[in-house]
Amino acid sequence: MFYRETGVFRESYAADMALFPVPLDRWGVLVLLLFACLGIPYLTSQYWMGSLIIPFLIFALSALGLNFLTGYAGQLSLGHAAFMGVGAYGAVILYARYAIPLLPSLLGGGVLAAAVGALFGLPALRIKGFYLAVSTLAAQFVIEWVITHVKWIGGGVFATIDTPPLRIGGWLLDTPAEKYYLTLAIVVGLTIFAKNLVRSRVGRAWMAIRDRDIAAEIMGISLFRYKLLAFAVSSFYAGVAGGLMSFTYYAAANIEEFNLLLSFRVLGMIIIGGMGSVLGSYLGAGFIVLLPIFINQVLVALGKIAGRLVTTDLLANTEFMVFGALIVFFLIAEPLGLARLWQTLKNYLRLWPFPY
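-> C-alpha cells emitted (356 positions)
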C-alpha cells in the first residue's frame, strides 16, 4: 500500500474511506456508545428514559430515513408520518395477530412501509418540487383513511391496536431500561448501515440526482431505479421507527399519532439538524425533543413574574411559533443546519490556536 506524507498526516485510500477517518471522531463515537450503553440506564430515571430518551432515538431514526429521501436524493416528502404508521400497524399486526417474533415483526413492518413508499414514490419519476410535495401529502391522507376505515387493519372505530407484552425468546421486555436497550440496538445498527450506504455508489447516485438530475441521467445514473430506491429505503426506516414507537413508547398502534403534524416535525428535524447529514438527523431530533421542555420551563418562569401575560393560548401555541421561526431562520442563515455549525466548530478547535 502506498502512502503520501503531507506534513504530519499519513494518508491512504483505506484511511480516507474509513467510517470515521479522524481519530477524534472514532474515540468520540466510542465514548458516546459506552455512555449510551452503561451511563444512561444508571444516571437517568425510568421516567426520563421512557418519555425522553426512547422517543429521541425513534425520531432520530425516522429523521434519518427522511434525510435519505430529501437531504441526499433531493425528493421532498410531506407524508413521512404515514409511512411510519404503515410500519407501526404492520409490525403490531405481525406480532400480535400472527405471533411472528418481535424483531422479524419490526423488520416486516419496515418492509411493508418500503413497499408502500415505493408505490407512492412512482410519481417522483415524472414530477418534482412542489408537485411532488403535493403528491406525498396526498399519500398522507390516503394512508390515514385506509388505516382508519379498513377494519382488518385498524381494528375498529378508533383504529387502535394494543401491543401484547414484548418478548425476545424467553426475555420479557417490561421495563423502560429493557425497551431502551432494544431501541438503542436497532437504531445503532441502522445508523451504521446508513453511514455506509451514503458513502456507497447508491449514496453518490442520490447526491448526483439531488444536485443535477439531468446531468446524472446523462452520466448513466438510472433516475427510475435510484429515486424508487430512495423512497423505499426512506420508508423502511420510517416503518421501523413507527414499529418501535408502537412497541416501546406508546404500547399501541394509533393512527392519530402519525398525523400530518408529525410529518412536518420530522421535516423540521432535518432542516434544523442538517439535510444530507447522518449527524444532522440526531442533532435535529434532539433539538426538537428538548425544545418543548425548554419552552415550558421558560414560560413557567415568566408566569411567576408576569402571570397574566402567560395565557393558556400562549402556552398551547408557543412551541409551534418557535418551531416555525427556527425553520425559517435555519433556511435563511444556515441551510445545512446544526451539523454544519458543529463541523465548523470542530474544524476551528482542531486547528486552534492557529485556525487561519
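The domain at 22-351 is CATH 1.10.3470 (ABC transporter involved in vitamin B12 uptake, BtuC).
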